[in-house]
Design brief:
There is one protein chain. By secondary structure, the chain is α+β, with helices and mostly antiparallel strands. The N and C termini lie far apart (41 Å). Helix content is 28%, strand content 40%. The mean pLDDT is 80. The protein has two helices and six strands. It is globular, with a radius of gyration of 15 Å. 17% of the residues are buried.
Amino acid sequence: MGVFTYEDEVTCSIPPAKMLSSLWKSYKEREALEQSRRFTLEKGSKFKSMTHRVDAIDKENFTISYIVIDGDVLTSGIESISHELKVVASGDGGCIYKKTSKYHTKDDAQVCEEQIQGGKEEGLALFKAIEAYVSSHPDEY
């Protein structure tokens, strides 16, 4: 099995505590730790569905770890994709959303740039949707 890692960062105008609160609320409402959940992605997404499991939510270090274990996002040769999300303060009162993704492949399969780009685009779209929601509902967080 091979492991291919990529990292990505996105800046955001939302303060870290609010962004973290929205991420935690999202995960808490959807699933308990160590339990898998399958969900359908939005229209226009490159993928239709996936199943993931949240492995850790660390409020002190501002991280969430989860792994995608099933769905069409796992294209030929990819066994799973693990993600670690971290939110850190930026100098302007907002935050920086850092994501490390590890593609675990079957045997000697390779991960192509198109697969990584698709994952980056899906992650960015989700993050921007959360940012827009928090911006338009500031009293909820």
